[in-house]
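Worked Example 4.2. Consider the chain below.
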Amino acid sequence: MAISINGTDVAIPDDPRVSLADLLREELHLTGAKIGCNQGACGACTVLIDGERVLSCLTLAVQADGRSVTTIEGLSHDGNPHPLQSASIEHDGFQCGYCTPGQICAAVAMLREVADGSPSYVTADLSAQPVMSPEEIRERMSGNLCRCGAHNGIVEAILQVAGEGTA
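Applying the procedure from the previous section yields the following structure tokens:
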């Protein structure tokens, strides 16, 4: 039994109580996913499992058995940052940077959700393709908190990448 983490197979921990966040941070030293509240309320620990955003502090490592986990460290390709990473820098989408990895992972999944046509609570026409707007992004990213107040930069970065279609 193994989990593919950023393309590398990793054995499931012997202890079934180990959270995915603890496996990533304590065992694998992938410290991008942060432990904020450890209760699933802040989103700082967001990673992707099979492309969907999950809170790694609330996910047991064994739940990822046989699946693909992508962390912020796994988003870059061939040494090049993911477009959302670059856009976050360009638009000052962070101040302290603590929430940034979770924000970016959540945004990657969110853009995939929009591309798949999944509506949100603020999507005006549920039968049409969702239209990216600041309101749509804020709703979809509401589970990821930034206590520094960099939300405007985060939204601008996501809007840029959504407009470019590079996510």
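The longest strand covers residues 2-5. Residues 35 and 155 are 23 Å apart (CA to CA). Compare this with Example 4.1 before moving on.
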